[in-house]
Amino acid sequence: MDKITNLSAKEYAVADDLHIKFRATGNVELLEYLAATLYVAVKNPRPAFDKNNLHTAALQFKNIPTETLMAVELTWAGCKNHLAKKFKYVFPKTTSKKSKIQANQSGFGKTILSVAGGKFGTFEETENTNIYTLMEELDEILKQAKNGKKGNA
Q: Which 8-state DSSP code applies to residue 47?
C-alpha cells in the first residue's frame, strides 16, 4: 500500500536490513528478498509474515529484471525517507561520521525487542504491530526522554 501503511514492524525490520545490506554489497539477490518482503498477493489484511519462508517467497522474483528490482529498492528508500520526516525522534538527523555509520545499520529488530512486553504486548505481538503505530509510540517515548519526561513504554 501507499507509504507502506500496512506493514508490520517485523516486515519493516527485515526490509530495512535487506535494503542496507544491498546498499553495502550490491548483491541483487537481496533485492529479490526485499521484494518478497514487501509484495504479497493479499493486500488487506496482509498475511502473517514468516521470515523463515522468505527464501521460498523470493523465488517468485528470481526472473524479475534487475532494473525493476532496483526500482523496488529505490521505492523502499523513499518510504523510509517519508518515515524519517514523519518521525523525527525515531530518525534523528545525524551529523558526526560515527552517527552516519550507525544510521546505516538498521537493527530495528532490537528496537522491537526493547519495547516488547509493554503497551504492545509480547515480543510476537509487538513485532506484528503496524509500523506506523509502533513508530508513533517510539517517537513519543523518545520525545519525552529528550525533554526529560517519563515515557509511556
A: P
